[in-house]
Amino acid sequence: MSEENTSSKRGVFEAAVASNRQIGPGFYRLKLEFFDEGAKAFAHFEPGQFAELDLSTVALPAPEVIPDDLRDVAGRNILLRRPFSVCEVTSERDETFAELLYCVIGPATLRMITLSAGDAISVIGPLGHGFHVPDEKKKVLLVGGGMGTPPLQHLAQVLTSRSDVEVIAFAGAKTAKALPYDGRLDAISQQLGFSLPEFARYGIESLVATDDGSAGYHGLVTDCLLQWFEQSDLVTAETIICACGPETMLARLAEIAIEKNIDCQVSMERRMACGINLCQGCAVECRIPGSSETLYKMCCQDGPVFNGRDVVF
Predict the structure, then answer these.
(1) Angle at CA 149, nearest 5°, toward 148 and 152?
(2) How far apart are CA 102 and CA 112, in angstroms?
(3) Per-residue confidence at 204, pLDDT binned at 50, 70, 90?
(4) 123-144: string of b/e by CB count within 10 Å (b at 16+)?
């Protein structure tokens, strides 16, 4: 993962749905298959980058499947593409598979549950700049809040190629049911620190925090991280935090990183209507180093991943 975006040139590609499975209440994992030039482009998809999906022609599910809170908006036309990060990328010969996680929260994601194997979908990507873990960093702390986990899962996958790096994942949500993961491992595995299969598969320790205490640490994931700091002997210059989740969580992590003198990268979320810096609707206010002034950067082009010290929360 270079500091500059070295992934293949972005483009509009047709992908085929390989699978679309439900992993929890409202949570699904959609696996897309790319061929030819699309396979080449998405084989180099960097953790933290995103893709824009055209869902305008995807059908609605049967009326009895539509949740009550979405019945009034379900029929709205889907005019704009929707941005998604990726949680896993695998390449096999001339094919590349990209898996993404989504939560049914509106008319577009509601339609996505009707996608089945073989369906075609138009995708623009790879887009934006992702996470960059410098060679001198030997400990990577992945902090995800709610639906912020996909790019962190992808980063965990990529970091397995570095034998000199230790990775620890922190996952937070309001309740156990709101954790967007494919279940949790058995009690013995959890006692050993491997709570979430998405990270355990890479040999990565994971800690869970829920606001109501229904799973793991009782409290905010940022407080769980602070407790972990108290029990750890870190070399701050060799440590980096990579985070994605609610903006209030990212703001607190940026504060913690400054207090601990640790580098921190945050993946910001904005309504990225175009994804290619045309609509200018995804501005993020950032500090100018060495100045009291600020400027606005575009989340879709300059981000979504930013230095936590630069963002004005």
Answers:
(1) 115
(2) 9
(3) very high
(4) bbbbbbbbbbbeeebebbbbbb
**Cα separation, 66 vs 113, whole angstroms:** 10
- With a CB cutoff of 8 Å and minimum separation 6, the contacts of 191 are none
In the chain, the domains with their CATH numbers are: 11-127 (2.40.30.10), 139-267 (3.40.50.80), 271-313 (no CATH)
Phi-psi region at 264: left, alpha or beta (left = phi > 0; alpha = psi -120 to 50) = beta
Per-residue pLDDT band for 195 (boundaries 50, 70, 90) equals confident
Which structure tokens are listed for 213?
């205490």
Q: How many residues does the chain have?
A: 313
Query: Locate tokens 């935090």: which residue?
Result: 241
Token pair in block for residue 49: 């980058």
Contacts of 143 (CB under 8 A, 6+ apart): 152, 169, 170, 172, 221, 222, 225, 241, 242, 243, 244, 245, 249, 253
Task: Please state, as a whole number, how many other Cβ atoms lie within 10 Å of the Cβ of residue 287.
Answer: 15
pTM score of the predicted model: 0.93
Per the omega criterion (within 30 degrees of 0), is the bond before 150 cis? no
User: Are the CB atoms for 32 and 97 separated by under 8 Å?
Assistant: yes
Tally DSSP H helices, then E strands, for the chain.
7, 16
In Å, how far from its chain's centre is CA 65?
A: 27
